[in-house]
């Protein structure tokens, strides 16, 4: 419906309708969190685009080609970003950098083109180079016109860009100090056991399979290092519970050694173009501490690298809670219900409750990170709800959160 404004769609007895196309898409994604200025929206014969800025970091885009969602972007998205930069600079008669103009942006672009060329069989990244020639001027010209017609929104946009510029300059010295510290400690990134192939190498074999597991401590990391595929699987070991980043500015990354090393390991300091692994998998223990570390890492990614999550690169590894076995058969169970079923099926079985990944031998663990591993994608259905959830669960203690904990307190001990 968002890609075909005005069209009524009936599906399973429900009616879907969008009057303003991509502007409605952004309004839905942003949710209740008000943008810094009204959504800039333009619809032409071959292209429709919309964007605004929020208080979040990074860039978030939803791009489409002939109705196909291109979650990895491509040449049309790059041209859209370039058109925004050129349009803003022409309007303001300035030479703002792309990072300053686009940090905090949420945008969407949809184009119609004959015989599109995609970089992969899944058609999630456009490779057609000729689209740049008409997308950049189309976006730039309409943006300049819109800004002249909406001076209040234009003023807020320029103010946001200048704020980004000031923050970037303040971060420059902090970044330099962090890099100097890292250079003195080691040439390699500490706690990273790397793989051979990487996602940011377009011609690398098996690049789509590249995965980094973020593990909890050296014990779990040691098991995974011995079980992994050295060509496509990397391991990053956390030293303990990472910093709760909620409410902190971006300089927190550079002041915290572990978060800085994780960012460098992923290659995302300057955007997702440098992402070294297609799948970023959080692999913590299946206990309360493990769940807490999951939430802390999720907060880190949502706070500073939201686009990593939006584009579908973040996952949680599901590991077995129980092992049920006798002399002839062994079953691994991911829930109490599976354990109970296994106990009924396997006669004379003994049950082991795994408290941590380090308790599983490398030989046993190998299937859990094989091609058939169980991983759950982290999905965002509404960007506006992200801020509300982080405020509630990761922010300061409030009476509402206390009551929520009381209402949802687990009374059964596993």
Describe this structure in words.
With 414 residues, the protein is α/β, with parallel strands linked by helices. The chain has three domains: 161 residues, 2-Layer Sandwich (Ribosomal Protein S5, domain 2); 178 residues, 3-Layer(aba) Sandwich (Rossmann fold), CATH 3.40.50.670; 31 residues, no CATH class. Helices cover 41% and strands 17% of the residues. The strands form four sheets. Strands 8-10-9-11-12-16 form a six-stranded mixed beta sheet. A five-stranded mixed beta sheet has the order 3-4-7-5-6, with helices on both faces. Strand 13 and strand 14 form a beta hairpin. The chain is globular and about 75 Å long. The model has no long low-confidence stretch (mean pLDDT 90).
Cα Rg:
24 Å
Q: Percent range for helical residues?
A: 40-55%
How far is it from the N-terminal to the C-terminal residue, by CA?
46 Å
Mean pLDDT score:
90
CATH class value of the largest domain: Alpha Beta
| SSE order | EEHEEEEHHEHHEEHEHHEHHEEEHEHEHH
Backbone structural class: alpha/beta
The largest beta-sheet arranges its strands as 8-10-9-11-12-16
Largest sheet, if any?
6 strands, mixed
């Amino acid at each position: 419906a968002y890609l075909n404004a005005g069209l009524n769609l009936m599906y399973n007895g429900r009616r879907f309708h969008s009057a303003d196309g991509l502007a409605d898409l952004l309004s839905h994604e942003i949710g209740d969190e008000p943008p810094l200025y009204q959504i800039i929206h333009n619809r032409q014969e071959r292209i429709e685009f919309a964007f605004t800025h929020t208080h979040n970091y990074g860039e978030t885009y939803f791009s489409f080609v002939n109705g196909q969602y291109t979650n990895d972007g491509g040449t049309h998205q790059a041209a859209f970003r370039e058109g925004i930069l050129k349009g803003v600079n022409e309007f303001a008669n300035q030479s703002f950098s792309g990072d300053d103009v686009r940090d905090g942006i949420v945008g969407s672009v949809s184009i119609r083109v004959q015989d599109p060329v995609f970089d992969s069989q899944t058609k999630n990244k456009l490779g057609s180079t000729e689209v740049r020639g008409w997308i950049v001027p189309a976006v730039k010209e309409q943006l300049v016109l819109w800004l002249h017609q909406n001076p209040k929104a234009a003023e807020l946009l320029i103010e946001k860009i200048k704020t980004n510029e000031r923050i970037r300059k303040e971060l420059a010295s902090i970044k330099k100090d962090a890099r100097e510290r890292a250079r003195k400690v080691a040439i390699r990134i500490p706690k990273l056991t790397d793989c051979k192939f990487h996602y940011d190498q377009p011609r690398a074999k098996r690049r789509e399979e590249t995965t980094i597991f973020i593990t909890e401590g050296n014990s779990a990391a040691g098991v995974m290092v011995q079980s992994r595929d050295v060509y496509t699987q990397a391991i990053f070991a956390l030293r303990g519970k990472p910093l709760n980043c909620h409410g902190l500015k971006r300089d927190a990354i550079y002041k915290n050694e572990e978060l800085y090393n994780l960012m460098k390991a992923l290659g995302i300091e300057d955007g997702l173009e440098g992402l070294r692994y297609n799948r970023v998998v959080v692999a913590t223990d299946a206990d309360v501490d493990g769940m807490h570390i999951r939430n802390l890492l999720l907060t880190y990614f949502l706070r500073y690298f939201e686009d990593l999550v939006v584009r579908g690169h973040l996952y949680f590894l599901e590991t077995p809670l129980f092992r049920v076995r006798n002399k002839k058969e062994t079953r691994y169970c991911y829930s109490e219900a599976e354990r109970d079923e296994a106990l009924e099926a396997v006669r004379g079985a003994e049950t082991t409750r795994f408290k941590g990944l380090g308790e599983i031998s490398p030989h046993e663990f190998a299937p859990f990170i094989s091609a058939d591993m169980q991983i759950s994608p982290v999905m965002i259905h509404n960007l506006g709800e992200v801020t509300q959830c982080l405020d509630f669960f990761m922010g300061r203690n409030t009476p509402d959160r206390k009551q929520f904990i009381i209402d949802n307190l687990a009374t059964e001990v596993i």
